[in-house]
């Protein structure tokens, strides 16, 4: 009997460990949370009944031990190194040249051969060293100064991605190095929870990960969504017999000698993965020569914003361990590796002032005026603070040193103050009661986060934004009617409504600031072109609240003419597919305003004649759902997605029985496996192109 309980306990532990890997490493759970919880409950119950069966590597032991008074210190058997940095393409060419020259000199690379590299993401978390003895996790330490770190074993044991026991044939000693991090979505959720409980909110996922790990109470760490990826190793000793002792590593400065089972970096990571350690298989990639490295850098740069976690660059490592030994080290960084950094997405600077801006619909946005700072590849002087509540929540005050973030093409935002740098009492932000532009009252409805200027088109700020919106690419597409021009034409009283745009002539335009004769003529031609917009574009151009370009097109198709739309009541508007009460109410109220109907009549007088909206095309891929995985030779994922959408298909992130096609490129991962299991049709890039008729 006891034997069967012990067996069941062992099986449950193995199963739970397997589910942890699927969830935390591949983001692809095979069971629901409820099923996972049931396994944990069963294991807990068996262990409660048979306490003698409890082992330190049981998943029930991850809840967190008693708090510590302080962290002990750990001397790393092999020092934890740092990486040399590069920023420009030239740095990568120089790195590849240094590597190749040395390897050619040593006879490890032929004259015409290119050096082989292993490329990884530079994860923005904190480095950790895990020590396994005979397959058991016995110690975990932070990097510290590279020689000595802090003992965070009790905390590390709560991270589900980290195996407490290795699978298969583990060596007597194995030190694994990698990064502990937090996914962005999980970080946001954690911050919401912290704020709701009145507890500290973190500035970014890296600080949250570091704060969670350097917690004296492991029970708190256990509640934090930490993850881990392995990318290196320290001491490796006592490989089990049967594993060829392929390699002795005793590079200068490395301290203890290691015996390694593989002769490439990539091979070592595969080996670590086989022992159950999380390795970033989704992005790790082999490349040749400087151009191969730069391709990887560019591809990851394009995907950066869509990754689940923050990265601050990519890392290139010479793949051959023999070559690494020849290259050696300078100071504390290996000569065989380079961190190629992306422009930092965050920086700190002084918050000089908070002003408010008035948007097209009167929305008042507080804007931070900053001491200029270089972030996300540009110099930033203004950043959004979103709204009043957000300022309160973040406790941002004029005079603070603040963290500014600009990720991808997203508008720069103030993340929060650096409280340690605040000196004395700083005043709280107060929302003005009147619009700084037109003096109208600012009001904020009870259930809305946004305060609004009530001036409507009387407010020059709203008028300017409305005109710019109407001239935009998705609306009337009037090239040349930009911010500076609209500014002048509204300020000098020439443009009061959209219809006035169609009365502008080249002569008066040429007299304006920054306008020549030629650009004035071009603008008049562009305005003339805009007299034949599709009905949907015209409707969108009017700037009705809640009416985006798609809604505008749907409404236009349904009603066929501007008069029909203007006269439709809410009931009639609700008959349009995807139009709900908010949109219907907004359109209806817009056209009950005499001045809005007037604008339409004036536009007609100026010769603006909307064209019937084209009816939707079925598209050759209508009704088909695609999942993309891996890297295609020519198309990026975004490109492939655009083509599929254009042909009427859909693109989904996860494979299921409902998936019509899985498009698999190089290094396709678990999605491909799942597709094969489900017997779905799998295509490569050429197959997709054929399907698209290309
Ligand atoms: S390798 C001998 N690989 O970057 C090489 N480090 O600037 C040791 N990091 O302390 C490090 N992602 O915290 C390596 N794929 C990666 C990495 C990585 C992030 C961090 C790590 C290290 C720092 C060095």
Automatic annotation (TrEMBL):
<dbReference type="Pfam" id="PF03119">
    <property type="entry name" value="DNA_ligase_ZBD"/>
</dbReference>
<comment type="function">
    <text>DNA ligase that catalyzes the formation of phosphodiester linkages between 5'-phosphoryl and 3'-hydroxyl groups in double-stranded DNA using NAD as a coenzyme and as the energy source for the reaction. It is essential for DNA replication and repair of damaged DNA.</text>
</comment>
<feature type="domain" description="BRCT">
    <location>
        <begin position="616"/>
        <end position="694"/>
    </location>
</feature>
<comment type="similarity">
    <text>Belongs to the NAD-dependent DNA ligase family. LigA subfamily.</text>
</comment>
<dbReference type="GO" id="GO:0003677">
    <property type="term" value="F:DNA binding"/>
</dbReference>
<keyword id="KW-0460">Magnesium</keyword>
<dbReference type="InterPro" id="IPR001357">
    <property type="entry name" value="BRCT_dom"/>
</dbReference>
<keyword id="KW-0235">DNA replication</keyword>
<feature type="binding site">
    <location>
        <position position="179"/>
    </location>
    <ligand>
        <name>NAD(+)</name>
    </ligand>
</feature>
<dbReference type="GO" id="GO:0006260">
    <property type="term" value="P:DNA replication"/>
</dbReference>
<keyword id="KW-0464">Manganese</keyword>
<feature type="binding site">
    <location>
        <position position="341"/>
    </location>
    <ligand>
        <name>NAD(+)</name>
    </ligand>
</feature>
<dbReference type="Pfam" id="PF01653">
    <property type="entry name" value="DNA_ligase_aden"/>
</dbReference>
<keyword id="KW-0520">NAD</keyword>
<keyword id="KW-0862">Zinc</keyword>
<dbReference type="InterPro" id="IPR018239">
    <property type="entry name" value="DNA_ligase_AS"/>
</dbReference>
<keyword id="KW-0227">DNA damage</keyword>
<dbReference type="InterPro" id="IPR013839">
    <property type="entry name" value="DNAligase_adenylation"/>
</dbReference>
<dbReference type="Pfam" id="PF03120">
    <property type="entry name" value="OB_DNA_ligase"/>
</dbReference>
<keyword id="KW-0436">Ligase</keyword>
<dbReference type="Pfam" id="PF12826">
    <property type="entry name" value="HHH_2"/>
</dbReference>
<dbReference type="Pfam" id="PF00533">
    <property type="entry name" value="BRCT"/>
</dbReference>
<dbReference type="InterPro" id="IPR004149">
    <property type="entry name" value="Znf_DNAligase_C4"/>
</dbReference>
<dbReference type="InterPro" id="IPR012340">
    <property type="entry name" value="NA-bd_OB-fold"/>
</dbReference>
<feature type="binding site">
    <location>
        <position position="143"/>
    </location>
    <ligand>
        <name>NAD(+)</name>
    </ligand>
</feature>
<dbReference type="InterPro" id="IPR004150">
    <property type="entry name" value="NAD_DNA_ligase_OB"/>
</dbReference>
<feature type="binding site">
    <location>
        <position position="435"/>
    </location>
    <ligand>
        <name>Zn(2+)</name>
    </ligand>
</feature>
<dbReference type="InterPro" id="IPR033136">
    <property type="entry name" value="DNA_ligase_CS"/>
</dbReference>
<keyword id="KW-0479">Metal-binding</keyword>
<dbReference type="GO" id="GO:0046872">
    <property type="term" value="F:metal ion binding"/>
</dbReference>
<feature type="binding site">
    <location>
        <begin position="33"/>
        <end position="37"/>
    </location>
    <ligand>
        <name>NAD(+)</name>
    </ligand>
</feature>
<dbReference type="Pfam" id="PF14520">
    <property type="entry name" value="HHH_5"/>
</dbReference>
<feature type="binding site">
    <location>
        <position position="438"/>
    </location>
    <ligand>
        <name>Zn(2+)</name>
    </ligand>
</feature>
<feature type="binding site">
    <location>
        <position position="459"/>
    </location>
    <ligand>
        <name>Zn(2+)</name>
    </ligand>
</feature>
<dbReference type="InterPro" id="IPR036420">
    <property type="entry name" value="BRCT_dom_sf"/>
</dbReference>
<feature type="active site" description="N6-AMP-lysine intermediate">
    <location>
        <position position="122"/>
    </location>
</feature>
<dbReference type="InterPro" id="IPR041663">
    <property type="entry name" value="DisA/LigA_HHH"/>
</dbReference>
<dbReference type="InterPro" id="IPR013840">
    <property type="entry name" value="DNAligase_N"/>
</dbReference>
<protein>
    <recommendedName>
        <fullName>DNA ligase</fullName>
        <ecNumber>6.5.1.2</ecNumber>
    </recommendedName>
</protein>
<dbReference type="GO" id="GO:0006281">
    <property type="term" value="P:DNA repair"/>
</dbReference>
<dbReference type="GO" id="GO:0005829">
    <property type="term" value="C:cytosol"/>
</dbReference>
<dbReference type="InterPro" id="IPR010994">
    <property type="entry name" value="RuvA_2-like"/>
</dbReference>
């Amino acid at each position: 009997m006891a034997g069967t309980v012990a067996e069941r306990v062992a099986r449950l532990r193995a199963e739970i460990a397997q589910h942890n890997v699927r969830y935390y490493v591949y983001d692809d759970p095979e069971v629901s949370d409820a099923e996972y919880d049931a396994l944990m409950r069963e294991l807990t119950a068996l262990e409660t009944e048979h306490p003698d069966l409890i082992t330190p590597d049981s998943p029930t032991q991850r809840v967190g031990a008693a708090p510590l008074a302080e962290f002990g210190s750990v001397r790393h058997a092999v020092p934890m190194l740092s990486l040399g940095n590069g920023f420009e393409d030239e740095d990568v060419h120089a790195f590849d040249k240094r590597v190749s020259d040395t390897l050619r000199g040593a006879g490890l690379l032929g004259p015409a051969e290119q050096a082989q590299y292993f490329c990884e993401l530079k994860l923005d978390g904190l480095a950790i060293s895990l020590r396994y003895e005979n397959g058991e996790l016995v110690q975990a330490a932070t990097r510290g100064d590279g020689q000595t770190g802090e003992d965070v074993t009790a905390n590390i044991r709560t991270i589900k991605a980290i195996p407490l026991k290795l699978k298969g044939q583990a060596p007597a000693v194995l030190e694994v190095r990698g990064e502990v991090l937090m996914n962005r979505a999980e970080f946001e959720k954690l911050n919401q929870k912290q704020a709701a409980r009145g507890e500290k909110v973190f500035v970014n996922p890296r600080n949250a990960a570091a704060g969670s790990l350097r917690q004296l109470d492991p029970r708190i760490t256990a509640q934090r969504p930490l993850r881990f990826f392995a990318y290196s190793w320290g001491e490796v000793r006592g490989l089990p017999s049967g594993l060829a002792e392929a390699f002795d590593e005793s590079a200068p400065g490395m301290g203890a000698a290691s015996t390694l089972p593989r002769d490439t970096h990539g091979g070592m990571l595969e080996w670590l993965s086989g022992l159950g350690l999380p390795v970033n298989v989704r992005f790790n990639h082999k490349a040749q020569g400087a151009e191969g490295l730069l391709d990887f850098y560019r591809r990851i740069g394009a995907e950066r914003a869509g990754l689940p976690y923050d990265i601050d660059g990519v890392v290139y490592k010479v793949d051959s361990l023999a070559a690494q030994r020849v290259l050696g080290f300078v100071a504390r960084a290996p000569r065989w590796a380079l961190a190629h950094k992306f422009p930092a997405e965050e920086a700190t600077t002084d918050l000089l002032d908070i002003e408010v801006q008035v948007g097209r619909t009167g929305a008042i946005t507080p804007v931070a005026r900053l001491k200029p700072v270089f972030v996300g590849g540009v110099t930033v002087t203004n950043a959004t603070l979103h709204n009043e509540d957000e300022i309160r929540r973040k406790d941002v005050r004029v005079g603070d040193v603040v963290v500014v973030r600009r990720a991808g093409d997203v508008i720069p935002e103030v993340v929060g103050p650096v409280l340690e740098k605040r000196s004395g009492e700083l005043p709280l932000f107060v929302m003005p009661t009147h619009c700084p532009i037109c003096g109208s009252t600012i009001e904020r409805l009870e259930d809305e986060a946004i305060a609004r200027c009530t001036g409507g088109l009387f407010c020059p700020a709203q008028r300017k934004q409305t005109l710019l919106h109407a001239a935009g690419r998705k609306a009337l597409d009037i090239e040349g009617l930009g911010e500076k021009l609209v500014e002048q034409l509204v300020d000098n009283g020439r443009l009061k409504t959209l219809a006035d745009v169609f009365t502008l002539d080249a002569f008066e335009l040429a007299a304006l600031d920054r306008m020549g004769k030629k650009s004035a003529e071009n603008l008049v031609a562009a305005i003339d072109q805009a007299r034949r917009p599709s009905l949907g574009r015209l409707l969108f151009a009017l700037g009705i609240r809640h009416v985006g370009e798609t809604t505008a097109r749907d409404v236009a198709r349904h009603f066929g003419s501007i008069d029909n739309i203007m006269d439709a009541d809410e009931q009639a508007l609700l008959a349009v597919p995807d139009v709900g009460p908010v949109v219907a109410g907004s359109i209806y109220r817009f056209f009950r305003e005499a001045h809005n109907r007037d604008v339409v009549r004036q536009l007609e007088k100026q010769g603006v004649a909307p064209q019937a909206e084209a009816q939707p095309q079925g598209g050759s891929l209508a009704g088909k759902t695609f999942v993309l995985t891996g890297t295609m030779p020519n198309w990026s994922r975004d490109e492939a997605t655009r083509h599929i959408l254009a042909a009427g298909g859909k693109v989904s992130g996860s494979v299921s029985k409902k998936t019509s096609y899985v498009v698999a490129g190089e290094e396709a991962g678990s999605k491909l496996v799942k597709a094969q299991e489900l017997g779905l049709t799998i295509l490569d890039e050429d197959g997709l192109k054929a399907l698209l008729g290309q």
